[in-house]
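Exercise (ungraded).
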Amino acid sequence: GAVVSQHPSWVICKSGTSVKIECRSLDFQATTMFWYRQFPKQSLMLMATSNEGSKATYEQGVEKDKFLINHASLTLSTLTVTSAHPEDSSFYICSARDGTDSGEQFFGPGTRLTVL
Amino acid sequence: GQNIDQPTEMTATEGAIVQINCTYQTSGFNGLFWYQQHAGEAPTFLSYNVLDGLEEKGRFSSFLSRSKGYSYLLLKELQMKDSASYLCALMDSNYQLIWGAGTKLIIKP
């Protein structure tokens, strides 16, 4: 089956620093990748959709200058949380779609970010 | 707009059967997914329905009625490891997933 990896699995950083999270599709080309955020005991919240080679489409309420998304290749997308603050602490999950008709999204294992 | 409703929490007994319902309203529909999510982990795919009817996959089955805007996930022979959140997700006309809030399933011995 399709495999998506994320790195790092968890990260702790100081307030004001920037954190980069990588999402890779290991055995397929991901035409579209999605970034989600999930707070404890809440459902997934879509942050943005990125297509390879074009600018990401951000959901309403998500600051594009704070959450920088780069989808430079068909196998890699990165999310950079700039000037992180404690309220950005969350579980960040990426998913990738391979462009087939099923539309199934394959999820990475997630990155737990804690901002002190 | 779209709206998805599923129960917040359910409790069932090991070895029993449980049905988790999901109702939705949408203007565009390209299928309905069920995902399982254990605490602290990413969701894992369980099923996909785009046509009416029942899809069976081992102990798990999923049903869809497009005219009623209704789906359910049926879990048989429950095991303790089935304790998790079950997420219903609707794929809209733009092929984006709209997520339900999830149903936390608690399995008791």
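Further reading is listed at the end of the chapter. For now, observe: The first strand of chain A starts at residue 4 and ends at 7. Residues 9 and 41 of chain A are 19 Å apart (CA to CA).
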